[in-house]
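On clarity, I found the account of how folds are encoded harder to follow than it need be. Since the whole study asks how a given chain folds, the encoding of that fold should be made plain. For the editor and my fellow referees, an illustration may be useful. An entry of this sort, consisting of the sequence and the corresponding backbone structure tokens, reads as follows:

:::
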Amino acid sequence: MPQLRLPQVQGISGRDLYKTSVLRGELQETTSLAAMGPVPQWDQVDELRLWIAPHPCGAMPVLLTPSAHDFALLVRALAHRAEPVPLADGVHAQAISGLIHWGLIERYGRQSRAQLIVLHEAPYGSVAAEQVPGHWDHQAWLKASSNLRLEHELTHLATKRLLGEMRRNLLDELIADCMGMVAALGQFSADLFGRCLGVGNPSGRWIAYTSELNATAAKEAMALTMARSAELEAELTISPELSGPELQIQLLRWLCRQKLDQPISPFPASLH
């Protein structure tokens, strides 16, 4: 993947170096790469982990790094065509599709493209372990956070397959966080969801989903979201079997039928 060797400088995606190395797959000498700018310097390349994550709606390759620096390099190289775009501090995951991968192209043809989820190992939602329901130490919460973050991203991809679109709204964040918490923690917590969403924090994650609303509408949307999350926690507490892996896809289908402006409907007995 020549993207990982390119200098991350402004405008590189429009230069001949990018076209020959990435679009045509021609190997470039290190000297020619360095002439365009400093080549990426990786912090913890030996700590990268790559595996295939299973999911009922389709398995996905996952690349995880414990380094925030390396995560930023990976996302810029693979999702932003090596452009040095700024990444928000709270971003620790990136699902990438349409990825040019010359190993696949050489085997399956020029129309082949790869998909990948890139993860940074960090506490989910910047929430400390002592704020998580139950008794979690830092390392256990760090591991659980990676599992939660991965299931969150897999859920977004799954909802796209189930609904035909990948929606970017508060309801889908609730759905993805619910599936993530159930997978990683065995339960859903409305309080933890609010903390991870950054409710009450003027720079919290919720801002990304209400930025086009005025202050009154944004407050109403958040109130609806937290009301639905409380109802969801109650429903899953009453029926703990819904959190089992054998009902994963049924739980997701049920969640996708919910509406932000309507109370959570009971889980249909026919789906048990």
Q: What stands out?
A: The first helix runs from residue 16 to 23.
